[in-house]
Each structure stands twice: as C-alpha cells, then as structure tokens.
Amino acid sequence: xxxxxxxxxxxxxxxxxEIDLESAKNHxxxxxxxxxxxxAQQATEKAMKAALACEGITQIAEHxxxxxxASDIIINAPEKWVxxxxxVLHDVAxxxxxxxxxxxPKVRARRVxxxxxxxxxxxxxxxxxxxxxxxxxxxxxxxxTYTKEG
Length: 150
Hints:
Elements: H1 4-29, H2 33-54, H3 66-74, H4 79-101, E1 106-108, E2 111-113, H5 121-146
Helix pairs in contact: 1-2, 1-5, 2-3, 2-4, 2-5, 3-4, 4-5
C-alpha cells in the first residue's frame, strides 16, 4: 500500500496535471498550438509520475517517464489494468517526444524553425485528448489500486 507522503505526492501531481490540461485547452482557444502541445505533454508526464509515486518512485528527472511507467507500473499492475495502461503508454509516445520540440526554436537546414511553426490545431487537439485520457486512466488506476477509500 502507498504511504501517506507518496499518496500526497500523487494527489499533488494529478492536481498539477489537471491545471496543465486546462492551460493546454486555453492555448488552443488562443491559437497557441505549440503551447497547447507542451502543456499537454506536461500534464501527461505528471499523471504518469503520479502513478510512479504510488510505487515510491518520486525522484525522476527525465521528462519522459515512459520506461519507468512500463517497468514499474504496467509490470506490477493488476491484470485488468495491464491493457488500459499499455494503451496509455502507446498513446503518449508522440507526446513525450514533444517536450523539447514544443519549447525552443531550432536550426534546420540553415533556417530557424520556431515551435509556433511546427504544430497545427489538430496536433494540439490530439495532444489535449491524449493528456485527458491519460489523466483519467491513471487517476482511476490509482484510486482503485492504491487507495483503501476507493
């Protein structure tokens, strides 16, 4: 069973993930698609780290916790959760790659490419959808698997 402090870390991470998700939705409204993708990535990262906190893993510096999520969450998950969590892992692959791409201008073919030029409304909407689904699945998984209250 998860300890009190790791339960609090998980709850805090999920609250932060929800805030990032709302921010991503607002960025779509304002047509800041790169910012929406970045905030959706952050929401997803925090949701995955919330599950990891329930296993006592709280000090992950990487912005893509997918490997930890696979080896420490999916491997140990109750059978009914294995496929939904694998689906999360599959769905977030593209989004995890966007951490750096959505943040900084880069030089490509001797031209500066800004994150503003890389993403469409569809990209942003898909990122937000993925983040929302991830938060929902991980929240339900944590509630059922790690808390007595249910």
